[in-house]
């Protein structure tokens, strides 16, 4: 589904990603772990198409076409979803209005009929219940005044409604207490299927107790220095990242 | 009906004042004092700190001709119905060029203990709330005001319907000025919604100068929505003086869309503890327009909250001016005062001047202010695009949000909904969103 080859990127003159290789197939869950500053969030930003990041080499092929050539909205419509580490507050924009517009933009692109207000409400309320979000949420402006946990759950709600083929979760676990973590993980697990894939970016192993990955990759200084199965995450939890960094050097 | 005084462009304020002599002896001391103050001060200039950013030259160059008697031209009822808020379920007082028009007005059954009428020759405590203000336009209004609304809600009473004050100008001659005076009293624990709109039916460079004094009693709850959508050549000057009593809830919304130049002076005095006062404003300007809000929120008692939210969208060569002064007097402990002014600039030639000012003489208070001037938030645009919305839709959504933030604070459902549709339509048709 996604083949990242020798991807290099940075901000202004600063090189951050120095040659990432990663292959994600449908049905798989990949975890990308690494210490602060290793390039985890840069990878998510580059995949999302955020302004200010320069891709200086390599490619990211998504379902046969170059993802990096697409505008952010085209990526979303093609089924790529990034759950952001810091979701933006948008005062004045009603959550229900925003989410329905987004869902319909994606549906139109897929050649599906737009959801009318009634069917949208029915679908969204069901998902909200699963995520433990009060219906009040829909009346509030997008993320405005939300707590950290509410913002993260709102990301998962958007993901559930947009039903992406490839979901990238950028430190979705940061700032969550254990109950919220479980709710978020359940939301992600519910989405797992043969036709889609998830990339979970995290600093800590604890999220992987709930979202069990098929593959674990360690990112260090802009490169993936080790890949393995879920036991690698447990090893990292016990031994930290330093031994790997030394091994790589 | 003397039309000569209304249309004689050669008049100076002193000459024009002759026409006011017949308007009731009881008000003459107020009028004469106003004339004297104005003769002394003249119009404000850019050298006045309070008028630094608002150049009144185009106004002061106009002939001085207060419309002291009705001009004899009035819109038909159907025309009024077609105006913004023309079909609200409300009692309606209509003023044409500053003169009450009984035929067009409609007052249904308000409870006894409620007065909704033309101010006429009511003297009451007129000037008692605005008297301390050295604004020359208040002085001019004292001297020349003709009609305006009188709303008195007795203790514990509730307006059976919102009261709509519709001020229209029909004047065709440059400089014709309507001086309007409103007096509002909301007794203890009373409730009421007031919708004030100012609209032009002509295109001339006319002047509206409105002074409103509002006394809000203990525990009263008043929502006042002011909608100014006059012609692009009009001048609009407004001065609101509100005194709020203990535990009062007061929300004043100022929606300023029209006029070449509009200035709203808002003077709030929080006189008792436990007050919640919200000032909420939206301006949308383009071309050569200037929209100015100048406010003083005077916390004279402890445990009061005041919130000011003003958003402006500026296009063309227009200018937005915001001056917000929060004064916390000694003893006004536990004051919670917040102020925000956000400006969205759509063109390279538009200007926003914002001046927050905190003056605090108590030590246990929370006062915050924030102002932004800029383009749309790139992070927010990106966030919306990352969810599948194209850049153009994302920008529209943010713009809608920017105005929506203000509009959604209006509690009166019908007004809020009509205004929401109106500002959105205005944005789509008159501003370049792409």
Total separate domains of chain A:
1
Main sheet attributes: strand count, strand direction, barrel closure of chain B? 10 strands, mixed
What is the name of the CATH architecture of chain A? 3-Layer(aba) Sandwich
Q: Mind telling me the C-alpha Rg of chain B?
A: 21 Å
Largest protein-protein interface: A-B, 29 and 24 residues
Distance between the termini of chain A: 31 Å
Element order, helices and strands of chain A? EEEHEEHEEHHEHEHEEEHH
Quaternary organisation of the protein chains: heterodimer
How many runs of DSSP E, i.e. beta strands of chain B? 20
Q: What is the CATH homology-level superfamily of chain A? A: P-loop containing nucleotide triphosphate hydrolases
Low-pLDDT segments of chain A: none
Portion in helices of chain A: 25-40%
Strand order of the largest sheet of chain A: 6-9-10-3-11-12
Shape of chain B: globular
What is the number of helices of chain B?
Answer: 9
Structural class designation of chain B = alpha/beta
Topology diagram in text:
The complex is a heterodimer of chains A (249) and B (434).
Chain A: E1 2-11, E2 14-24, E3 29-33, H1 40-48, E4 53-62, E5 65-66, H2 72-77, E6 80-83, E7 90-94, H3 95-109, H4 117-130, E8 141-142, H5 148-162, E9 166-170, H6 178-191, E10 197-202, E11 215-220, E12 223-228, H7 230-239, H8 242-248
Parallel strand pairs in A: 3-10, 3-11, 6-9, 9-10
Antiparallel strand pairs in A: 1-2, 1-4, 4-5, 7-8, 11-12
Helix pairs in contact in A: 5-6
Chain B: H1 4-7, H2 13-16, H3 28-41, H4 57-60, E1 65-66, H5 77-81, E2 91-96, E3 99-100, E4 114-118, H6 136-144, E5 149-153, E6 163-169, E7 176-186, E8 191-200, E9 207-216, E10 221-229, E11 235-244, E12 249-256, E13 261-270, E14 276-285, E15 290-299, E16 305-314, E17 319-328, E18 336-345, E19 351-360, E20 366-374, H7 378-385, H8 391-407, H9 413-430
């Amino acid at each position: 589904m996604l083949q990242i080859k020798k991807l290099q990127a940075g901000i202004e003159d600063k090189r951050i990603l120095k040659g990432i290789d990663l292959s994600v197939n449908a049905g798989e869950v990949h975890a990308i772990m690494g210490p602060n500053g290793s390039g985890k969030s840069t990878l998510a930003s580059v995949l999302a198409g955020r302004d200010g990041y320069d891709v200086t080499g390599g490619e990211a092929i998504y379902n046969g076409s170059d993802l990096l050539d697409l505008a952010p909205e085209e990526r979303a419509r093609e089924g790529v979803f990034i759950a952001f580490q810091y979701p933006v507050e948008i005062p004045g924009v009603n959550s229900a209005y925003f989410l329905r517009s987004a869902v319909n933009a994606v549906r139109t692109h897929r050649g599906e009929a737009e959801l009318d207000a009634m069917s949208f409400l029915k679908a969204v309320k069901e998902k909200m219940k699963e995520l433990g979000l009060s219906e009040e949420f829909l009346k509030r402006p997008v993320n405005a005044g939300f707590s950290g946990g509410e913002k993260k759950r709102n990301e998962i709600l958007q993901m559930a409604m947009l039903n992406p083929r490839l979901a990238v979760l950028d430190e979705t676990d940061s700032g969550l207490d254990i109950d919220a973590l479980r709710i978020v993980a359940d939301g992600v697990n519910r989405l797992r299927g043969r036709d889609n894939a998830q990339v979970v970016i995290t600093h800590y192993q604890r999220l992987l107790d709930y979202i069990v990955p098929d593959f674990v990759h360690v990112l260090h200084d802009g490169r993936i220095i080790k890949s393995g199965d879920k036991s690698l995450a447990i090893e990292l939890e016990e031994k930290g990242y330093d031994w790997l960094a030394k091994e790589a050097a | 009906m003397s039309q000569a005084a209304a249309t004689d462009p050669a008049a100076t304020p002193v000459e024009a004042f002759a026409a006011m002599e017949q308007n009731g002896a009881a008000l003459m001391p107020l009028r004469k004092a106003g004339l004297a103050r104005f003769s002394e001060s003249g119009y404000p200039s850019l050298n006045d700190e309070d008028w630094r950013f608002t150049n009144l030259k185009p106004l002061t160059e106009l002939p001085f001709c207060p419309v002291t008697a009705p001009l004899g031209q009035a819109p038909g009822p159907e025309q009024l119905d077609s105006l913004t808020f023309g079909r609200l379920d409300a009692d309606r007082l209509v003023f044409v060029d500053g003169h009450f028009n009984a035929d067009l007005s409609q007052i249904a059954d308000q409870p006894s203990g409620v007065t909704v009428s033309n101010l006429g020759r009511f003297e009451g405590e007129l000037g008692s709330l605005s008297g301390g203000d050295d604004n020359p336009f208040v002085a001019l209004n004292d001297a020349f005001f003709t009609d305006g609304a009188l709303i008195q809600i007795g203790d514990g009473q509730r307006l059976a319907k919102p009261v709509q004050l519709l001020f229209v100008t029909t004047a065709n001659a440059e400089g014709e000025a309507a001086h309007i005076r409103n007096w509002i009293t909301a007794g203890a624990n009373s409730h009421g919604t007031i919708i004030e709109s100012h609209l032009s039916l002509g295109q001339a460079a006319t002047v509206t100068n409105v002074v409103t004094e509002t006394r809000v009693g203990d525990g009263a709850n008043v929502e006042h929505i002011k909608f100014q959508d006059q012609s692009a050549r009009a001048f609009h000057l407004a001065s609101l003086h509100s005194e709020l009593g203990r535990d009062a809830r007061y929300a004043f919304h100022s929606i300023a869309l029209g006029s070449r130049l509009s200035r709203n002076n808002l003077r709030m005095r929080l006189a008792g503890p436990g007050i919640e006062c919200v000032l909420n404003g939206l301006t949308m300007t383009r071309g050569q327009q200037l929209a100015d809000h100048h406010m003083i929120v005077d916390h004279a008692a402890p445990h009061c909250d005041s919130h000011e939210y003003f958003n402006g969208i500026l296009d063309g060569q227009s200018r937005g001016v915001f001056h917000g002064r929060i004064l916390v007097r000694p003893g006004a402990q536990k004051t919670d005062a917040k102020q925000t002014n956000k400006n969205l600039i759509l063109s390279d030639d538009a200007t926003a001047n914002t001046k927050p000012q905190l003056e605090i003489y108590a030590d246990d208070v929370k006062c915050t202010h924030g102002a932004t001037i800029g383009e749309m938030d790139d992070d927010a645009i990106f966030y919306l695009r990352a969810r599948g919305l194209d850049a153009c839709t994302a920008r529209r959504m943010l713009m809608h949000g920017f105005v929506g933030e203000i509009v959604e604070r209006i509690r009166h459902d019908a007004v809020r909904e009509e205004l929401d549709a109106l500002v959105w339509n205005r944005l789509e048709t008159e501003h370049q969103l792409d």
